[in-house]
Structure formats: C-alpha cells, structure tokens
From TrEMBL:
Name this protein carries in UniProt: GGDEF domain-containing protein
PANTHER family: DIGUANYLATE CYCLASE DGCT-RELATED
Transmembrane regions: 5-20, 26-44, 56-77, 92-109, 116-134, 154-174, 181-203, 215-239, 251-273, 279-298
Organism (species): Actinoplanes nipponensis
Pfam families for the chain: GGDEF
C-alpha cells in the first residue's frame, strides 16, 4: 500500500511539473527529491542488517543530492544572491553521484557474486557504448558550446561509471527476473544517465543552460529509486543470485572483442578524419576495459583448470570414499615397480629384487550383513569410515585405494618393507578392535589382509593377484571383529 501511494503521488508530481510556471516548479521538485529519502529509509529498515550497506549508501547519496539542491536553489533564489548560478553546489552533486553509484556497485557485487563473468561482459559492453556516446556525440556538443574542462571531466566520469553500473545492473536483473526492485534500481540509474546525456545535448537557447524539462528525467530517477526501496523484493537484492551458464562461445568472444576495440577504433578514426576526439577517453577507457578483459580471461582459465582437475580426480578417485581408485592404484604400483627396476642396490649395483615394495590386499568381513540389514546408505557410511581409519594406519607417502566393493589395497615402498607391513598391520589390528557407529547402531567388522612383496620383474596385475590370493587364504580362518593375515 505504501509503495502504491508513493508511486502515484511521486509520478503525478513529475507529470504535473511542466504544467506549472517556472517559479512554481520548486515545490514539486523538492517534494519528489525529499520524498525519496524516507522511502529509502524504509528500505533500509526492511532489509536484514547484513544487507543494509547498499541502501545506506543510496540514502547518503540522496541526502547529499538534496543538500546540493537546497544550496543550488538558495544560490539562485536566495535573498541577497539573485541570479546566482548554483555552481557552489557542484561538489555536493558529484559526491552524491559517487555515493549512489557506490550503492549500485555494492548491489552488483553481492547479487552477482556467482555471475562475475556475465557482469564483466555487461560492464565492458556498457563502458564501450558509453565511451562511443561520449566521443561521438557528447564531446563535440560540449566543445561547440565552450564547456570548460572542469565541467567536462566530472561529466565524463559520470557517463562512463553510470554506463558500466547500468550494464551490470541490467545483467543481474535479467538473471534474477523476479526481483522488481532490481529493475527499478536499474531504471533509476538509467534515468540518471539519460539526464546527464540530455543535459549536455539540449541547452535552453535563451539562457544557454540545461533545458528545464530535463529535470523531469532526474525526478523519474528519484521516484524509481524510492519505489525500489519500498518494493518488498528490496530485501532480497543483495542475496547471491543463481549461477547462470558462463560459456564464452565464439560469437560472444567476438562481440566482446568488438566492444573492447570500439572506443580506440572510433577515436582513431575521428583523428584521421580531423574530427575532435578525447584522448582522455581512450586512455581511461583502455585503463578500465583492459583490466576487466584480463580478469575475464583469468577467470575462464581458472574455470578450465578447475574443470580439468575435477575430471582428473573423477577418473582417478573413488566418488564415495575419496580414495584413489583401482586405475590409480595400478598406475602407482607400475610406477613404483619401475623405480625398483631403475634403482640399483648401492652395494651390488644390481636391482634390489623384491625387498622394496609391499602390497596389502584387504577385504571387509561382515560388510554384507550390515549392508543388507541397515541398507545401502549405512553400507556407504561404513565404507567411508573404514577408508578414513585405513588412511590413518599408514604413512603419508603410502597409498590406500578402494579397489572395488569392500576391497582396499595398500601400497607401501620402503627399504625394509617387512617392518613397515608389521607396523601397518599392528595399527589395523587396533583399528579393527574398535567398534563403528553406522546408522545409529554399533557394528563390528573384521579385515582379511593378504600381503605380497613385489618382484621388480613382475607386473602390477601379478603382484595384486598374489596379494589377492593371500587375502583369500587369510579369510579361511577368520572371525568377525578380528584381523587375519596371510603372506603370498
């Protein structure tokens, strides 16, 4: 209800603005600009405490704008200062612009944190189009009417920054779709940008200053900002948005390349044709756009690297336990066997034989009854717990892998592998004696372990096969909750 009444009254004042005499327009102007302040204050109070920063920045910008408006009006109409130009208020207007833009940027950063690539693309496009607008349209007009550089510079910065912010806001608005507050905020930013453009292009022929009807465009921006703060969705605009697809297709890459080169190419073309151009635009535009492109490329490279790492991990690791899988185990074993063949014995200068590498093939005893009685989820939980405990029983450089089902293989390489196997088996025996809690129940399982010492001349499959046979031999004399051990 508050939003509806605010929108009706605010836009009615904007619509009636040109119908009033010049002197009578001050009242609706102040009602609209000042009325946006309590509207945004309500938006601050509605938002969660952790999401209030952008609204505080927007509120500070509005208060500063209104302070500048009051100073401007006093300079023009105030007693003893008739006919003042209000230029003393310009610092306040510039500060207000920065605060409003900072509020929009915070919204973009928080809402779009999962869509950084899309936001960068939108900002690059908006900056390029804003630079083109400045170089081809605004700068010639400002130069023709003799606008001083002190006025051009803030306007140039406003146009570029507002264009980039508007592009980013439109991006997160398109992704969100169901957050009207974002669209209203983007509309307010767009109205401010349009007002700045029109202020440079359209001057009152009688006074040489901005045509007064352009004030309506700024008033629309105030009204839209107030509506954005009062809309119920305003409390949600700083929550992270959904992660959209971020595929840099050839067409999209070509488009970004064109946008990146747009300002330098147009600026260079105007120089060739002898038309006025802005070297500051080319320098600043390049200084802003090129880092954005570099960040975009770096993010894409990082995404590709993470995707490759994820694929590699999926190919070499068990999805349930996180341990290396069968393929990774065989690959590690082949590598270690190759090292044994390559490393000569220091005393004899010959291969050290089967004294450097041991393989422990383990199988759970009692796993199937637990899996059948408590369900597959409980069975998975049991496998994860056993994998964690087995990993704690070995040294850092030893390999524990899930070979398949409830079978695990341990590969350890040492100058005295027999002593290492004894130490590992002692720790496994202690581990087996401890009960496990699965699906809220206490269960006990046993382990059968077969040990094979590697012959460098043998292959990985042969060593694994001998350890597997030894494990089955150990299982023949097994009872649940104990460790049985056999050597190949």
């Amino acid at each position: 209800m508050v939003l509806r009444w605010y929108a009706v009254v605010s836009f009615a004042l904007v619509a009636g603005y040109p119908l009033l005499s010049y002197d009578a327009r001050t009242a609706p102007f102040l009602l609209v600009t000042l009325g946006a302040v309590p509207a945004v204050l309500i938006g601050v109070r509605r938002s969660p405490r952790t999401a209030r920063l952008p609204w505080w920045l927007l509120l500070s910008g509005l208060v500063t704008f209104n302070a500048g408006n009051l100073v401007w009006l006093w300079m023009i109409y105030g007693e003893g200062r008739p006919g003042g130009d209000g230029s003393v208020a310009e610092p306040l207007f510039n500060l207000a612009n920065l605060l409003l833009l900072a509020g929009s940027v915070v919204v973009v950063l928080r809402r779009g944190r999962r869509d950084v690539g899309g936001i960068i693309d939108s900002a690059i496009t908006a900056l390029a189009l804003g630079g083109l607008l400045w170089d081809a349209v605004l700068l010639p007009q400002l130069t023709a009417v003799g606008t001083p550089m002190s006025t051009q510079a803030p306007m140039f910065i406003d146009v570029l920054v507002m264009a980039g912010s508007l592009g980013a806001l439109l991006r997160i608005s398109l992704v969100a779709r169901r957050l009207p507050a974002l669209w209203l905020l983007a509309g307010g930013t767009g109205a401010g940008l349009l007002g700045n453009v029109l202020s440079a292009l359209i001057l009152d022929p009688a006074t040489g200053v901005r045509a007064d009807w352009i004030t309506m465009v700024y008033l629309v921006g105030y009204s839209l900002l107030g509506c954005a703060a009062l809309h119920p969705s305003s409390a949600l605009i700083t929550l992270p948005g959904p992660p959209p697809a971020d595929d840099l297709t050839p067409a999209r890459l070509t488009f970004l390349g064109v946008m990146t080169a747009l300002v330098p190419v147009v600026g260079g073309g105007r120089v060739i044709l002898g038309l006025p151009t802005d070297g500051l635009l080319i320098a600043v535009g390049s200084a802003v756009v090129i880092p954005l492109v570099m960040v975009r490329v770096a993010r894409l490279a990082g995404q590709r690297r993470r995707a490759e790492q994820a694929l590699l991990r999926m190919a070499t690791h068990d999805a349930l336990t996180g341990l290396p899988n069968r393929a990774a185990c065989l690959d590690r074993l082949e590598t270690d066997l190759g090292r044994l063949r390559a490393e000569p014995d220091p005393a004899t200068g010959r291969a050290p034989g089967g004294t450097g590498l041991a393989v422990l093939f383990t199988d759970l005893d009692g796993f199937k009854p637990v899996n059948d009685r408590l369900g597959h989820a409980a069975g998975d939980e049991l496998l994860i717990a056993v994998a964690t405990r087995l990993r704690a029983c070995v040294r850092e450089h030893d390999l524990v892998s899930r070979f398949g089902g409830d079978e695990f293989v341990i590969v350890c390489r040492d100058s005295d592998p027999a002593a290492t196997v004894d130490a590992i088996c002692a720790r496994i025996r202690e581990m087996v004696e401890l009960p496990l809690t699965v699906a809220g129940e206490t269960v006990r399982i046993g382990l059968s372990v077969g040990v094979a010492y590697a012959d460098p001349a043998a292959g990985a499959d042969e060593v694994i096969g001998r350890a597997d046979l030894a494990m089955y031999a150990a299982k023949q004399s097994k009872s649940i909750g104990t460790l049985s051990l056999a050597l190949a």
